[in-house]
Inverse folding.
């Protein structure tokens, strides 16, 4: 089964992101937009995982979160991967005042490396994918709207757990199922 590690978003944050997505859709650009139920912050993509490895992944996640306090993330800006000259993915960024997210991501990466999942070569950019660009149709309109929307204020949300998710590819899009939840340490949010 295809699996990944993620942080889920509260419904209110998703609604705010969907409103931004709707404004971007008005460009008429050829984009495969992420459905609200598919919005999440991916910490690590695992790929195909045998069922017998799930318990080791759960243990690794518990170790990764063991010294991380609750923390808040802010929805910060809209961006494009890899860049505005070669737009492929529209995303919305997340940022934190402290370093808990970075520590959490590094801990997840390290604990999973110990049980055989290779480390990522690229840096971690906390983001939610809004859509994947399929062609250059109306791309200039889309890029102009992104520039207009660049800085956004959707407030913050609290992160209290990390999820092991299964991804099933269906004709209507990917369906995500939570397999396990590792809960962060309750505390002052550091």
């Amino acid at each position: 089964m295809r699996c990944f590690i993620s942080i889920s978003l509260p419904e209110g944050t998703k609604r705010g992101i969907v409103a931004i997505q709707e404004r971007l859709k008005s460009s008429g650009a050829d984009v495969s937009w992420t459905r609200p139920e598919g919005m999440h912050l991916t910490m690590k993509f695992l790929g195909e995982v045998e069922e017998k490895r799930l318990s080791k992944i759960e243990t690794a996640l518990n170790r990764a979160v063991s010294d991380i306090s609750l923390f808040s993330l802010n929805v910060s800006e809209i961006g494009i991967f890899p860049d505005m000259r070669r737009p492929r993915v529209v995303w919305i960024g997340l940022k934190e005042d402290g370093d808990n997210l970075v520590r959490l991501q590094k801990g997840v990466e390290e604990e999973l490396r110990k049980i055989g999942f290779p480390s990522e070569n690229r840096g971690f950019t906390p983001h939610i994918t809004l859509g994947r660009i399929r062609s250059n149709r109306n791309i200039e309109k889309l890029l102009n709207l992104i520039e207009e929307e660049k800085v956004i204020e959707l407030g913050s949300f609290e992160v209290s757990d990390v999820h092991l998710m299964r991804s099933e590819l269906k004709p209507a899009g990917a369906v995500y199922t939570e397999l396990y939840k590792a809960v962060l340490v309750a505390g002052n949010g550091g």
In short: Strands lie at 2-8, 31-33, 40-48, 71-83, 86-95, 127-133, 156-159, 161-170, 173-183. The two ends are 35 Å apart (CA to CA). The domain at 2-183 is CATH 3.90.1140.10 (Cyclic Phosphodiesterase; Chain: A,).
